[in-house]
Known about the structure:
By secondary structure, the chain is of the alpha+beta class. The protein has helices spanning 7-10, 18-33, 58-61, 64-78, 130-133, 152-159, 261-266; strands spanning 43-46, 52-56, 103-111, 122-128, 147-149, 176-190, 193-205, 217-229, 234-247, 250-258. It folds into two domains: 7-78, no CATH class; 103-266. It is built from seven helices and ten strands. Strands 4-3-10-9-8-7-6-5 form an eight-stranded antiparallel β-sheet. Strands 1-2 form a two-stranded antiparallel sheet.
Amino acid sequence: MPVYVSDSNTGPFGPQSIEAGAEVRRIYGDFLNRRLGAGSVHLYILKPDGSSLTGLGPIEAAQPNTLKHLLTEVIGALGTQPGAPAVAPRPQSVPPKSDSGGLVLHLVARSASGGNWHEFPSENWLILSRPEWTQLFPREMPQTGASWQLDPILTRKLLGRFYPQTEETTNQDRNRVDEASLRLTVTATGAGVARARIDGRLRMKHSFYPGKDSEDDVDATLLGFLDFDPTNQRIQRLRITTERATYKNEAFGAALRSVSAETLEALGH
């Protein structure tokens, strides 16, 4: 039965129970004492009684043939028989609960280069309260060509996770924002709907490792659009993506999108 844990959940500042954190430390210590290999990023394989068996470091575990060979050996040693999953498969990243007036946003970011940290995209969920997302609207009934700048605090919230995977142990905002702007310009209006183009700029520092004072820079230009009903104050779609973006001078891409009520319902929210 595969299980994964994150330092942001089971570390000293995580929201999980004391028992969960203690179990992670027990496994780590047992593997260390038995010289089976250990690390904050590591594949640990346990016996059915929870005792240590074997494991792999992250580089070896990311090699399909190496991992398959190890798991085949474990099956043979334990006499494991095929069977149904002990836990039904489900998405690893799901939106948090929000009230009916909130706007749920899904953010995906990924480095353009390969390597251990860059094999998979990062995912984050943002919830905008009604007072926040109504700031996306213009103050007056929109006309084609009308333009307005988004509030700096809301802009920072929308763009604060526009970087590829980094090491995190808490949910603390570690950014130093030097420039963040989102300008909306109405490009079309119709019956019950208006569309605004979004142009953005982001320059900020975000250290790869927490507690490090480094020059890890995010530099990005952004594009997007907002479809909204100005009369009834409803957002139909929000999309923001990187047009050009680098982190630590390496290219990456990120995309933020609003999630429909139908999609949330399908996810059980």
